[in-house]
Design brief:
- The protein has 174 residues and is mainly beta.
- 0% of the residues lie in helices and 65% in strands.
- The protein has no helices and 11 strands.
- The strands form 4 sheets. The chain has a 3-stranded antiparallel β-sheet with strand order 3-2-5, with no helix packed on it.
């Protein structure tokens, strides 16, 4: 819950296809309470490269005074085409959480190790307790030149207890 009556939802999806990409992929997020009564629905779109992992992040979904008990993410449609994989050559040099700070944040250092510049890079962080995601955040880097390093400071609005690890995802935005 980000503020009373609203939640942020993050879902990690993975394209298990090595040579197929979805240029346009629609999805639906449904929130149910503990009695399996639908609280809210949010639809969105994205794209997914071959073998890519992507964080779907939807912020400020209204839930009024109800408490979510189950979240379901459903793919609705996709425009799939054959494509050779072309992973980004951006290395995560450091990801250091400062979750007791005010505001809680994580500092991430990245380096473009490719022989090309990149534009519109999405950097997402998932805070974990075992396999459970406790918090997510995302930012967009406008440009990374060849050999360039960037330092990011990603924040959360309130403390997130019981974090045992963090996962950083880097992908080309569309």
């Amino acid at each position: 819950v980000t503020r009373p009556g609203f939640v942020d939802i993050g879902a990690l999806i993975e394209n298990g296809e090595q040579f197929l990409a979805a240029r346009h992929m629609a999805y639906s997020i449904k929130l149910f309470d503990k009695n399996n009564t639908l609280i809210a629905t949010k639809e969105g779109t994205g794209s997914l490269e071959p073998s890519e992992r992507m964080l779907i992040f939807e912020a400020n979904i209204p839930i009024e005074k109800r408490t979510p008990g189950l979240v379901v993410v459903e793919p609705l449609a996709g425009d799939w085409t054959k494509k050779d994989p072309n992973p980004l050559s951006i290395k995560v040099l450091r990801a250091e959480p400062f979750l007791e700070a005010d505001p809680p944040h994580i500092e991430v250092d990245l380096k473009n190790e490719a022989s090309v510049a990149y534009q519109n890079i999405e950097a997402s962080v998932i805070l974990l307790s075992g396999d459970e995601a406790l918090g997510v955040t995302r930012t967009v880097i406008d440009r990374m030149a060849i050999g360039e390093s960037k330092s990011l400071n990603l924040t959360w609005p309130q403390p997130i207890p019981h974090v045992t690890g963090a996962q950083v995802l880097i992908r080309q935005g569309r």
